[in-house]
Amino acid sequence: MNTPPPPRTPARSLRVAALTSVALLLLAGCSGGDSSLGSSQGAAKGADTAGLKVALITHGGEGDAFWELVQKGAEAAAAKDGVDLTYANDSDPAGQAQLVRDAISERVDGIAVTLAKPAAMKAPVAAARAAGIPVVGLNSGIGAWKSQGLLEYFGQDESVAGAAVGDKLNGLKVKHALCVIHERGNVALEARCAGVKKSFRGETENLYVEGTDPEAVDTVLTARLRQDPGIDEVVTLGAQFALDAVESVKAAGSKAQVATFDLNNDLVTSIRTGNVQFAVDQQPYLQGYLAVDSLWLYRTNGNVSGGGVAPVLTGPAFVTRTNVAAVARFAAAGTR
């Protein structure tokens, strides 16, 4: 995030001409759940998708490359399915909740939403369901989507991903890991660092920074590395923060290595050069794609991925110097 996000970002409508035929439907890996899902959240009785409207509402900050990948995936699914897609984002929980209420007022046919701050989203999600609008989750809120009554969830189990990073650090003989959290209170980010701590046999500490202020991130991280030369690994929770951490390590004269969650084209280059050891790829493009496509499938064919009881996992996958070439061209195209 290069600049602080505005209080609210107006929705941007991304309209795609409806397909002339919907005879060919993609089949979800798991078929629809029980009949109550179809009656309570508006499953379609037929296959008419003309004018089907979907709102994708995230907690992403403006200018964050990660959320651009999510949006690109959603747009690709909308283009394929002939869906009228609206994307809106607000990093403030109250603002995001209002965006959901706005979508309800606009009588959309489906809502895909992130649950970074589940408590703030509980009431608007319940209102959407009461209005007969199917809601699916993506990216954040794997521990809350079922209790809030969402149909499906697409993302990474952050606790599992964090534990996998901890195991990898054990294999690298790391002694002291610094886990940098760029958004306090974000359940997904907290779960990542908790997962690292659970499996990592060395010392783990969390460092909280203000992710919307890159200069402050650099200042705080550089100072901590100078204070403790024993820190030999910096784990960041976003690709852009890993790139910043590389510079902070240099500025501090630290010998720490850098690893991260999430991936982008610039990070691919850093992995290739060895400046970043590895990245955990949760495939944000896929999250956006599946979220929109799942609502289309539900409305046209009653499909519920995971049967409404299990999340559809998009990660974790490790990208290292040995396998980075396999994803490099997709990252260059802006889809990984």
TrEMBL record:
Keyword line: Signal
Span of domain Periplasmic binding protein: 55-298
Molecular-function GO term, any one: carbohydrate binding
Gene3D superfamilies: 3.40.50.2300
A GO cellular component entry from the record: outer membrane-bounded periplasmic space
Classification via InterPro entries: Bact_Solute-Bind_Prot2, Peripla_BP_I, SBP_2_dom
UniProt-annotated location(s): Cell envelope
Residues in the signal sequence: 1-28
Primary localization: other
Record family assignment: Belongs to the bacterial solute-binding protein 2 family.
Protein name: Sugar ABC transporter substrate-binding protein
Native source species: Streptomyces canus
Taxonomic lineage: Bacteria, Bacillati, Actinomycetota, Actinomycetes, Kitasatosporales
